[in-house]
């Protein structure tokens, strides 16, 4: 299966666990990422007490905010 650089090939490649991983992927400070999660402005979920996110969903969210620019 061919994938481009923005398409994860497995769940392990797609998932981000914890605010620190999400912030690093986004290239923003942890506090800003936590604020966006707490205010419901960033797509995420929870596994128990751990905040989780999908790289693919975050990229799609960014594309929607910026009119398709990744």
Distance between termini? Answer: 22 Å
String of helices and strands:
HEHHEEH
Q: Unreliable segments (pLDDT under 50, ≥5 consecutive)?
A: none
Shape, please? globular
Q: What is the strand content?
A: 15-25%
Coarse structural class: alpha+beta
Largest sheet, described in full?
3 strands, antiparallel
Helix content: 40-55%
Count of alpha and pi helical runs: 4
Number of strands: 3
Round the Cα radius of gyration to an integer and report it: 12 Å
The strand line-up of the biggest sheet is: 1-3-2
Total domains, how many? 1
Q: Can you give the mean pLDDT?
A: 89
Task: Give a description of the structure.
The chain is an alpha+beta fold. The protein has one domain (14-65). 46% of the residues lie in helices and 16% in strands. It has four helices and three strands; from the N terminus they run αβααββα. It has helices at 11-14, 19-26, 30-38, 55-65; strands at residues 15-17, 45-47, 50-54. The chain has a three-stranded antiparallel beta sheet. β2 and β3 (50-54) form a beta hairpin. The longest helix is centred in the last third of the chain and has 11 residues, at 55-65. The mean pLDDT is 89.
């Amino acid at each position: 299966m061919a994938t481009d650089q923005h398409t994860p090939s497995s769940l392990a490649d797609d998932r981000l666990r914890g605010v620190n991983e999400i912030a690093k992927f986004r290239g923003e400070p942890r506090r800003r990422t936590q604020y966006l999660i707490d205010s419901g402005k960033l797509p995420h979920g929870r596994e128990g007490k751990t905040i989780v996110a999908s790289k693919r969903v975050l990229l799609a969210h960014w594309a929607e905010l910026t009119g398709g620019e990744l």
